[in-house]
Amino acid sequence: MPIPSNVENLQRFSAKNIIYQTVCDWIITGVLRPGEKIVDSELAKRFNVSRTPVREAIQILEGQKLVYVVPGRATVVADIDTTDIEKCYRTLAELQALAAELACGSITDQELEQMEKTHRAFVDACDRNDGAGAIDHDNLFHETIVRAARNEYVEEFSRTMILHIQRIKYHYFHCDRMRKISVSQHGEILRTIQARDGAKAKELMRSHWICSMENSLRDIAGSMQGHGGELGADVLTK
């Protein structure tokens, strides 16, 4: 099991939460690949904790369908099922469309400033061809909107769907043209939320994710053709 060596020991933090977040990041970014076995004793040793918080973290990952547990045998990183891509995107499109509509009635001036700052950083990362930075600022832009909706259920379900979509992106493809599209769409969404036009914000957010879905499916189909029907697994995405 390939565990990075630069993981700090846990001290004042919740062991379960830190282990969950760390292993989740490893799965999303491909450090732990589909089919990789997760050995709880190795994780416990690496994080200098008992097996209990490791198992609790694994239970969360299992609930999010990022791993599956074979009783009495092993915990395994789940495969990326390309047939679920459209399901993930369409579900997220509706969740975040609702979040954008709700945010128009509850977002604070401070959160609007955060959105503006994040959007500028996103544009800058795209201009510099910084794929990882663009992903980070893209995520923060959407997270700010979802939090501003003040609906914990939308926030929780949206977070779970985002995990799967991020994993798809990191695992399969890199799409420069989508950055330009996202810059334009983010700008429109920002201006609409600033104007507190809930109906339009809802429409724009839904269209944003559907556009991303269509381009993702197109690029994955192209990747499959280029690899004789098998998707490439080592290419960073945005």
TrEMBL record:
Gene3D superfamilies attached to this UniProt entry: GntR ligand-binding domain-like (1.20.120.530), Winged helix-like DNA-binding domain superfamily/Winged helix DNA-binding domain (1.10.10.10)
InterPro entries named among the record's database cross-references: GntR_C, TF_FadR/GntR_C, Tscrpt_reg_HTH_GntR, WH-like_DNA-bd_sf, WH_DNA-bd_sf
Matches recorded under Pfam families: FCD (PF07729), GntR (PF00392)
Keyword set includes Transcription: yes
Keywords attached to this entry: DNA-binding, Transcription, Transcription regulation
Location of the HTH gntR-type domain: 13-80
Ranges in a coiled coil: none
KW Transcription regulation (keyword) present: yes
Molecular function terms from GO: DNA binding; DNA-binding transcription factor activity
Domain of life: Bacteria
Protein known as: GntR family transcriptional regulator
Organism: Candidatus Flavonifractor merdipullorum
